[in-house]
Structures are given as structure tokens and as C-alpha cells.
Design brief:
The complex is a heterotrimer of chains A (254), B (293) and C (334).
Chain A: E1 6-17, E2 20-31, E3 34-39, H1 46-54, E4 61-66, E5 69-70, H2 76-81, E6 84-87, H3 99-108, H4 125-137, H5 153-166, E7 171-175, H6 183-196, E8 201-205, H7 209-215, E9 218-223, E10 226-231, H8 233-238, H9 240-245, H10 248-253
Parallel strand pairs in A: 3-8, 3-9, 6-7, 7-8
Antiparallel strand pairs in A: 1-2, 1-4, 4-5, 9-10
Chain B: H1 3-34, H2 41-63, H3 67-88, H4 98-120, E1 136-139, E2 143-146, H5 147-169, H6 171-181, H7 183-188, H8 193-219, H9 225-240, H10 245-265, H11 270-284
Antiparallel strand pairs in B: 1-2
Chain C: H1 2-18, H2 25-51, H3 59-72, H4 81-103, H5 108-128, E1 138-139, E2 145-146, E3 150-151, H6 155-178, H7 180-198, H8 202-228, E4 230-231, H9 238-251, H10 256-274, H11 276-279, H12 286-300, H13 308-320
Helix pairs in contact in C: 2-6, 2-8, 2-9, 2-10, 3-4, 3-5, 3-8, 4-8, 6-7, 6-8, 7-8, 9-10, 10-12
The chains are: A alpha/beta (254), B mainly alpha (293), C mainly alpha (334).
């Protein structure tokens, strides 16, 4: 694992909120060409971790490095412009815009040109081109004109990821992309993630254990804001600590 | 400024601040718990003042009572008014967007103003304080201070204390605080949330009306008084933090001081000072001094 | 569908251009006033409908433009429109920059209250300081001209000039809202968090919208001052801010023509309720009728007048098909 391959690094992230320690000295590293999954029971601090990495929350202490730069003090938009993309657990697509417009608006970030007020955004070649590519990649090519609010739940989650890709990130923070999906939709999403793995570093917060063990290259297990284990899927599966704390049912089912 | 004048201004600040707190607490409570922004809240203050003026002769002839009897009658009427208004109008506003609430309550202000104009007219009136409170207390060697103003401060403090006790020590208070953060949970516990909201709203109205009644002898009774107090209440809520009673108290006292001393020290700029204060605090804390709670 | 809308708008402006041919002095004066308010309403529509920012202090920028027009006009010679108009727009835009920079640090209800408070601040400056001239207001002794071509002291010239400004503002905002900048504002309106996660510095966009909106309101203020030749602090009262909000919600938020329709509808409603021929002595209590109308229109016409045809169509469709919900391709309302 060479240093150049670590695209996002979190060092000893701690967050204290009202007397509660939400995260306690959490560290992890995201490498290019890999999926790093973060799992843990509810309240483990996974969402807080993603919020801190993306810039929505500030840590009480610790450092975050993105592509070699210290971004701990950077705002969320600034990090997003520097190659960090994130998707949300709850759909944050724009329901009243079409699928294409959802992607185009996200793609617009790369070439915002806000002063060119006489130019019709819909005819913007750059953002429309990127939007088409991204929608294609996410499997939404046939649904471009549909209003996003009318998509099925699975399609909305795909759109969520597509919008994430439209900004051209190198690091993807995905917060439960499989939430609420059926078997077929999950397959489609996993295929997409496997393909995305080729060019990006992906952090995946998920509850679907089958999916996690299928696709993750590295798994970090968190309980009550603390990392209790981190390593390859085989290591995590074999870990007694993890088994006791979290994977109890899974080990019985093996 | 010598010591006695300073003391007088301090007492004035306290009295104005506490009165403002009574009105603002209703506004911030109704917003914090029911999520309704009510522009007509200042109208309740105006209604209280006009009630003090209009009810006094009625109460005098019917019950033979004086000032305190009028206050009591006014309070009862205010609770009824609040109860009715919530049932007939405000309960429909809870689920609406803020813009719609703003406009509908703005329409309500116009309606209240014209109803008042029709019922009591547009004249400015004075209300005399009751005889036992009409005197003055000596302050230092040469100055005196009106007893009635001290009465206002005392009554406001008592009410504030009462509200604090109800909130923190009673079951009703606990239900109200729970209802503000988790509506569904409170409902599933079998508590009638509609009734709770109605009670909170009626209390908010009653307190604002009471403030108007009590303030009438010092501020006089005039048509635009509701609007003036409303905007200052907004400043209180912005500075103090929406939904925070503590914040409303601190902000009201702060504004009381800035406004009172401002009028004495910088009379030309006095109208603008509280807005400058608000701007400065916003620079430092965009969400107000305290969060709800 | 979109072609039809453009044609309707063009026809409406053409009708306004031809209106002086049939109208008398009173009509021209009234419609000029309404058009000034239409410009004012358009400025607010950029904020509320375009960006989701409910500003309750728009009157401050109107007032600033108006007071600037009066204060900057020399006593003896007619100033040129070419510098006076931009100066007023700039003055209003600068105050909007100041107010916006501070207010946009707040959100939601706080923002509504803060913008109202800043507007009150402007009101008190106009009311209490020599800069504002006090409650009596100040008069404009000379009216601006454009060389020998335009003399805005002439009612008909002012009417056409105001119409030209209205058309220019309408066209500018139409372009702006469909541009990348406008689409970014739309995204901010729907989900600001998502826009930030995508990489947009939303504060900057909102502030820009606020300043542009303030400038346009300043233009309306300039026209207002030129028309009446007189300004007083009541122009900055919060009633004015409230009224312009009512105009855009009455007309229909989310549509530029809604702002114009709303300005006309509101002015006509006011004339209606103030009419002594209809209400006799009760006409002095016209605010009662207005207040009730406001409540009713917000409650019953959520999409404003512009949305009435659609509302009627939905009603008829609901009667024809008992369950249209499942397969409907209607776009979801925001």
C-alpha cells in the first residue's frame, strides 16, 4: 500500500457533542481501487463519521487528509470541488427536476460560469454531456426525461449515486446506498459499485452484511464511536471481538 | 449621569425588558412548540391595552371592581380568545410553510386592526393606574420613582417565575417540552396533542394580552402599538434563539438596557440601536444566543 | 405549451403599450403605479420563487432607491437618467449587500425576522435622521431626462419608460432564471444541503441573488420617486414589505408572470375595497376586506392566480377519473 494510493485519510477523529463522545479517535485510510466498508450497530457513529469526512460537521480533534492535503478546516463545498463526493442515506435528489437535469445540475459544478446569465443552462454542452455519461453509467439512460420524484426507490438511489459521480470525484463516500432496496436492485447497485471501484476510492457505510462481505476490500467495525476492528473481510469475520460485539447472528448462520 | 439618574434608567430598563419578555416569550413558545410564526402576536398586546381602557368602566359598573378586577376579567377573556383562535384559525397553520403562515397572520393583523377600529375607534387613550399604585417612591435626595413601574417589574417577574415553575416542575410542563421535540411519541403516550397545543397557544395569547393591560398606564393606548412591539419581539427572538425562554429573557433585558440608555445617551440614533445590536450578535452567533430548551 | 406562454406574455405587454390610447389621465397614472409595483414584485420573486428566500424587508431597497433618486437630484437642473438610474440601483444594491451578508448567515424563520428588522432599521434612519428628512418626507424638484428625447415629467413618457423598464426586468430575470446561475438557485431552493455536497458555495449564490434583487427593487424605487416626486418613510414601512409578498403569492410563486399578475390583482383589490361607491362609509375600513382576502387566497389558492387554470383542470380530472394518482405522469409539486 503506497502512500500515493491513499486518497483520503482520517487521523484520530474525535467528536464530542454535549457530553457525549460520538467518535473516539477513529482513524482510517481509503485507497484507490478499493471499497472500504464501515459497519456497526445503530448509534455506532457511522453517519457522524461520514458527516465529518465530507465536511458537514467539524471534529473536536483529529485531522483529515484528502489527496495529500490537510482539509480539516475546509468547508464541504470546497472538499467537494477537490474530488470528494458523497451520497446520502435518505434521497437528496431534486424530485421536481428530470433525471437528466438532476445530473446536469450536479455536473454544472465543474464549470459553473455563473456570470454568463444569457446562456440557457439546458443548452450547456459540457454539463449535459457529463450528465448523459453519468446517467448511462448508473443505468438510468432510458429514464432521462422522467421527473425524479416519480422514480422507483431503487432508481432514486441510483440517481443519488449518479449525481455523486457527476462532479468527477476521486473519493466516494456512500451512506447506505442499498437502503430499502430489493434483491434485483441490490444486484444492480453492487455491479455499479464494482465498476466504480476501478477508478475511485470508496467508503461504504452499509447494513447489508452479504453485500458488504461481497464487495468490500477492507472493513472497519465501529461500536459506540470506537473502531473495534479493521482489516480484510476474512480477518473481520474471524475476529472474536467483532463476533461478540456485532456479528453474533452471522457467525451462527455460517 | 449621576448615580440616581443611572439607577432610574436601570429600573426603567428592567421594567421595559421584563414587559418585552412577557410578550416575546409567548411568541417564541408558540414558534418553538408548534412551529408557527405568528405575526399577529403583537396585536394581542394591543388588544390587552385597549381592553384595559375599554373594560375598566364596564367592570366598574357591573362588579364594582377596579383595576385588579379589570385585569382578572381581561385575563379570562384573553384565555378564551386564545382558545377560540387556536381552534378556529391557528390549528390550520401548523402544517403549512412559513411563508403561508407569515401571510395569513399578516392578514389577521389587518383584520384585528380594523375590528378594533370598528369597536373602539382609532383614538389614543390614557389609562390611569389604580390609586394604591399611583404614588411614587423617593430615590436619593431629589428624585422619585413611580410605584406603578415597580409593580410592572414585580408582576412580570412573578409571571416569569410562574412559567419557569410550570415548565420545569409540573407534568403539564413536561408534556409541553416533550411535545415540542417529539410530537408522535407524545401522541402515542395517549396525551392529546391538540389539547396541549391549544393550552400553549391560549397561554401565549393570555400572557401577551396581560402584558398589554399592565403596560397601558405607562405606554398609553394607541393604534400602532401592536406592530411596534411585534418587531422588537422578533429582534428578541432572533437574539435569544427561537424556542428558548432563557434566551428570550436575556435578550429582552439586553434590549431593555440598550434601548433605555440609548434614548438617554444617543437620542438621535435610539431607534436604530437595537438593530445594530442584532446585527452584531448575528455576526457572532447566527442561531441566537441559546438553542431551544 | 411553452410557446403559448411566451405569446401570452408578449400580447400582454403589447396591450400595456397600447393602453394609453384608450385610457385617460387617471388610468395612465394608475397603471404606471401598478407597473412600478410589478417591477418591485419581480425583484422579490427572484428571491422567493427563484431562490426560496422569504425576505420580509424588501421595502428597504425600494425606499433606498427612491430616497437616492430624490437626494441625488440637483435642485436646479434636470438630472440625466443615464447616471441617476444606475446610481439608485447601485445604492439599493449596496444596502442589499450589507443586509444580505449578515442576514444570509441565518436560515428559515430567522431569515424572515432578520430581514424585517433590517428594513425597520432603514425606516428609522429615514424617519429620525436628517438624512431621511423625517416624517414629512422630501420632494423632488426636478425630474430626470434623457437629453432632449425623454422628459420623465410627462406622464405618457413616464408610462412608456416604466413599461420599458418592466419589460427589460422581466426579460433579464427570464434569462437569469434559466441560466446556470438560475438553475443553481433553483437547486438551492429545493435542497441547499445537496448543492453544498455537490460543491456549490451556496452562500455566494444567495448573496448574489439578494444583491440583484435589491438592485431591481432600487430601480422600482427610482421610478416611484420620479412618478410621485415625493418620498416619505412610509415607503419603507413593513406594510409595503408585506404587501409585495402578498402580490407574489396572490399571483403565483415560481412564475415571473405571477409577480406581474399579482401586482395588478393586488392594486385592483385595493381600489375595490377602498371604493366608496361600493362600500360607502365602510370603505375607510378597507383593510378588513383586504385582510380577509389575503387569508382566503393563501388558504384556497396555494398556487396563486397563475395556478387557477391548473387547479380547475385537476378538479375536473379528479371527477372524470376516480383514481388518477397511480399512473399519472404529472410532475410532482415541490
Amino acid at each position: 500500500m503506497s502512500e500515493a494510493d491513499v486518497l483520503l485519510r482520517a487521523k484520530e477523529i474525535t467528536r464530542v457533542c454535549g457530553g457525549l463522545i460520538a467518535l473516539n479517535r477513529v482513524s482510517l485510510a481509503l485507497e484507490r481501487h478499493s471499497v472500504h466498508a464501515v459497519i456497526g450497530p445503530n448509534g455506532a457513529g457511522k453517519s457522524t463519521l461520514i458527516n465529518i469526512l465530507s465536511g458537514e460537521l467539524s471534529p473536536s480533534s483529529g485531522q483529515i487528509e484528502l489527496l495529500g492535503q490537510d482539509v480539516t478546516a475546509w468547508s464541504q463545498p470546497r472538499r467537494a470541488r477537490s474530488g470528494l463526493g458523497r451520497s446520502y442515506q435518505r434521497n437528496t435528489i431534486y424530485p421536481s427536476f428530470s433525471v437528466l437535469e438532476n445530473c446536469r445540475l450536479a455536473a454544472q459544478m465543474r464549470l459553473p460560469k455563473p456570470w454568463a446569465f444569457w446562456q440557457d443552462a439546458q443548452h450547456c454542452k459540457f454539463s449535459t454531456q457529463v450528465a448523459l455519461e453519468v446517467a448511462q453509467r448508473a443505468g438510468l439512460a432510458k429514464l432521462l426525461e422522467r421527473s425524479a420524484g416519480l422514480l422507483s426507490h431503487g432508481q432514486k438511489r441510483q440517481l443519488e449515486v449518479a449525481m455523486c459521480l457527476a462532479t468527477g470525484p476521486e473519493v466516494l463516500l456512500l451512506d447506505e446506498p442499498l437502503a430499502g432496496m430489493g434483491a434485483e436492485e441490490t444486484e444492480r447497485m453492487l455491479t455499479l459499485l464494482a465498476e466504480l471501484k476501478k477508478d475511485h476510492a470508496i467508503l461504504l457505510v452499509e447494513h447489508d452484511m452479504d453485500a458488504v462481505f461481497r464487495i468490500a476490500d477492507c472493513i472497519t467495525v465501529m461500536v459506540n464511536g470506537v473502531v473495534i476492528a479493521s482489516g480484510s473481510p476474512a480477518f473481520v469475520r474471524a475476529s472474536a471481538v467483532v463476533r461478540v460485539a456485532y456479528l453474533g447472528e452471522l457467525s451462527d448462520a455460517q | 449621569m449621576d448615580l440616581t439618574t443611572f439607577l432610574i434608567q436601570c429600573l426603567n430598563s428592567l421594567q421595559y425588558g421584563l414587559l418585552l419578555f412577557l410578550v416575546a416569550s409567548g411568541l417564541t413558545l408558540i414558534f418553538g412548540i408548534m412551529g408557527v410564526i405568528n405575526l399577529a402576536h403583537g396585536s394581542f398586546y394591543m388588544i390587552g391595552a385597549y381592553m384595559a381602557y375599554a373594560l375598566a368602566p364596564l367592570v366598574g359598573t357591573t362588579f364594582g371592581g377596579g383595576f385588579f378586577a379589570t385585569l382578572l376579567v381581561g385575563l379570562v377573556l384573553a384565555v378564551l380568545l386564545g382558545y377560540l383562535l387556536e381552534w378556529a384559525f391557528f390549528s390550520f397553520l401548523y402544517q403549512r410553510e412559513h411563508l403561508q403562515q407569515v401571510l395569513m397572520t399578516y392578514g389577521l393583523i389587518l383584520v384585528f386592526e380594523e375590528l378594533r377600529s370598528l369597536l373602539v375607534g382609532d383614538d389614543v387613550h390614557g389609562v390611569a393606574p389604580p390609586d394604591i399604585l399611583a404614588g411614587t417612591l423617593p430615590l436619593g435626595e431629589m428624585m422619585t420613582y413611580p410605584v406603578y413601574r415597580l409593580f410592572i417589574s414585580a408582576v412580570c417577574l412573578l409571571l416569569a417565575l410562574g412559567m419557569y415553575l410550570v415548565f420545569t416542575r409540573t407534568r403539564l410542563g413536561m408534556m409541553i417540552r416533550a411535545g415540542s421535540t417529539n410530537r408522535e411519541m407524545v401522541q402515542s403516550l395517549g396525551i392529546d396533542i391538540k389539547f396541549l397545543y391549544r393550552v400553549v397557544f391560549a397561554a401565549g395569547v393570555a400572557v401577551a394580552v396581560f402584558a398589554g393591560m399592565v403596560a397601558a398606564p405607562v405606554s398609553s393606548v394607541y393604534p400602532g402599538m401592536g406592530n411596534t412591539v411585534l418587531i422588537i419581539c422578533f429582534v428578541v427572538v432572533v437574539i435569544g434563539g427561537i424556542g428558548s425562554i432563557r434566551g428570550a429573557l436575556l435578550a429582552s433585558l439586553l434590549i431593555g438596557v440598550v434601548d433605555t440608555f440609548g434614548k438617554v445617551l444617543l437620542p438621535q440614533a435610539s431607534g436604530v440601536l437595537i438593530y445594530v445590536l442584532m446585527a452584531l450578535i448575528l455576526l457572532w452567533r447566527p442561531d441566537g444566543l441559546f438553542k431551544a430548551g | 405549451m411553452k410557446q403559448a406562454k411566451i405569446i401570452v406574455v408578449v400580447l400582454a405587454f403589447a396591450a400595456l403599450a397600447l393602453f394609453p390610447l384608450i385610457a385617460g389621465k387617471y388610468g395612465i397614472d394608475l397603471v404606471t403605479k401598478i407597473m412600478v409595483f410589478a417591477v418591485f414584485a419581480l425583484s422579490l420573486e427572484l428571491l422567493v420563487g427563484g431562490s426560496g428566500l422569504v425576505c420580509f424587508g424588501q421595502a428597504a431597497f425600494l425606499g433606498l432607491g427612491a430616497y437616492a433618486a430624490v437626494r441625488l437630484s440637483p435642485q436646479d437642473a434636470s438630472p440625466s437618467v443615464l447616471w441617476l438610474l444606475p446610481a439608485c440601483v447601485l445604492a439599493a444594491a449596496l444596502y442589499a449587500l450589507l443586509v444580505g451578508a449578515l442576514s444570509l448567515r441565518t436560515k428559515g424563520v430567522y431569515f424572515i425576522m432578520v430581514t424585517l428588522a433590517f428594513s425597520q432599521m432603514a425606516y428609522y434612519v429615514a424617519h429620525d435622521t436628517p438624512l431621511g428628512g423625517g416624517t414629512d418626507g422630501i420632494y423632488m424638484t426636478t425630474k430626470p431626462v434623457l437629453g432632449a428625447l425623454l422628459d420623465l415629467d410627462q406622464p405618457l413618457t413616464l408610462y412608456l419608460f416604466t413599461l420599458a423598464c418592466l419589460i427589460a426586468v422581466f426579460a433579464f430575470l427570464a434569462l437569469l432564471l434559466r441560466s446556470r446561475f438560475g438553475r443553481a438557485l433553483a437547486g438551492i431552493r429545493v435542497n441547499e444541503q445537496r448543492m453544498r455536497a455537490t460543491g456549490f458555495s451556496t452562500y455566494g449564490y444567495k448573496l448574489a441573488a439578494f444583491v440583484i434583487s435589491g438592485g431591481i427593487a432600487g430601480l422600482a424605487g427610482f421610478l416611484f420617486a420620479v412618478k410621485d416626486g415625493f418620498v416619505n418613510p412610509e415607503l419603507i414601512s413593513w406594510h409595503v414589505s408585506g404587501n409585495v409578498l402578498i402580490m407574489i403569492i396572490l399571483g403565483g410563486i415560481g412564475h415571473l408572470r405571477g409577480a406581474v399578475i399579482g401586482a395588478f390583482a393586488f392594486a385592483l383589490l385595493q381600489e375595490l375595497f377602498k371604493s366608496e361607491t361600493l362600500f360607502g362609509d365602510f370603505a375607510k375600513h378597507w383593510q378588513l376586506g383586504l385582510g380577509l382576502t389575503i387569508i382566503a387566497s393563501v388558504a384556497l389558492l396555494p398556487r396563486g392566480l397563475v395556478g387557477v387554470p391548473q387547479q380547475l383542470a385537476d378538479r375536473l380530472l379528479a371527477r372524470a377519473k376516480p383514481d388518477p394518482a397511480t399512473d399519472s405522469e404529472e410532475p410532482v409539486d415541490e
